[in-house]
C-alpha cells in the first residue's frame, strides 16, 4: 500500500496548492467539470475525501451522500485532506476496502483517490484562472491508472469524451485530455 499511499499524498499536496488560489469571488466561476461551478466542485471534492477517509478508517465506503459541512469549503477540504492522509498512514497496510459491498484492494482505492484528487486539483486551478499543470512525475504514474479506472462505461455520465492531445504533450496535459478536459494555456479573462 505504500505506493498507493505515496501517490495519494502527492496528489493531495498538489491539490492543496491549487486551493490557495480560491477566493470567495471565484466560487461561481465555471470549472472544466460540465455543469459545475467552483462551489459545486469543492463540495464534490469534500465528499470524495470523506469517502476515502471512510475507506481507511472503517474499511468500507458507504455510498450515501454526506451532509454539507457548511462554512468555508476550502477550510473543510484542507481539514479533510489532513485527516485522510492521517487515516491512511495509520492503516496496517494491504487489505481490502468494501465499496458498495464489493471488495477492492486498498491500493486500488488509494490510486483511484489520487487520480480524482489530482485532476480535480487541476480543475480548481483552471477555475481560478491558473495554468498549474499536474506535475510530470505524478501525471506519468496516473496516466496508466486512468486507462484502467476510467472506461467508456463512465462516459458521458461521469467523464466527457477524451480530448485529442499530442503524444509529445506533457504528461499532465495527456492525463487531463484523456479525462475530457482541454489542456493548454488559459485564455486571459
Automatic annotation (TrEMBL):
The UniProt entry, under InterPro entries, shows: CHP03086, DinB/YfiT-like, Maleyloyr_isom, MDMPI_metal-binding
Coiled coil (residue ranges): none
Outline the extent of the Mycothiol-dependent maleylpyruvate isomerase metal-binding domain. Answer: 19-125
Gene Ontology molecular function, alphabetical: metal ion binding
Q: Which Gene3D superfamilies match?
A: dinb family like domain
Q: Which NCBIfam families match?
A: maleylpyruvate isomerase family mycothiol-dependent enzyme, TIGR03086 family metal-binding protein
Protein name in the entry: TIGR03086 family protein
Species of the source: Thermomonospora echinospora
Amino acid at each position: 500500500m505504500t505506493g498507493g499511499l505515496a501517490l495519494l499524498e502527492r496528489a493531495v499536496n498538489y491539490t492543496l496548492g491549487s486551493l490557495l488560489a480560491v477566493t470567495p469571488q471565484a466560487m461561481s466561476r465555471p470549472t472544466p467539470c460540465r455543469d459545475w461551478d467552483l462551489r459545486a466542485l469543492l463540495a464534490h471534492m469534500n465528499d470524495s475525501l470523506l469517502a476515502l477517509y471512510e475507506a481507511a478508517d472503517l474499511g468500507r465506503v458507504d455510498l450515501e451522500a454526506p451532509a454539507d459541512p457548511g462554512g468555508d469549503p476550502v477550510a473543510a477540504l484542507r481539514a479533510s485532506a489532513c485527516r485522510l492522509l492521517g487515516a491512511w498512514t495509520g492503516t496496517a497496510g494491504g487489505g481490502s476496502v468494501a465499496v458498495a459491498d464489493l471488495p477492492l484492494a486498498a491500493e486500488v482505492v488509494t490510486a483511484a483517490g489520487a487520480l480524482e484528487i489530482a485532476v480535480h486539483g487541476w480543475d480548481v486551478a483552471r477555475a481560478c484562472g491558473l495554468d498549474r499543470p499536474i506535475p510530470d512525475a505524478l501525471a506519468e504514474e496516473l496516466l496508466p491508472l486512468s486507462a484502467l479506472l476510467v472506461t467508456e462505461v463512465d462516459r458521458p455520465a461521469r467523464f466527457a469524451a477524451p480530448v485529442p492531445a499530442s503524444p509529445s504533450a506533457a504528461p499532465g496535459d495527456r492525463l487531463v485530455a484523456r479525462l475530457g478536459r482541454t489542456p493548454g494555456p488559459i485564455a486571459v479573462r
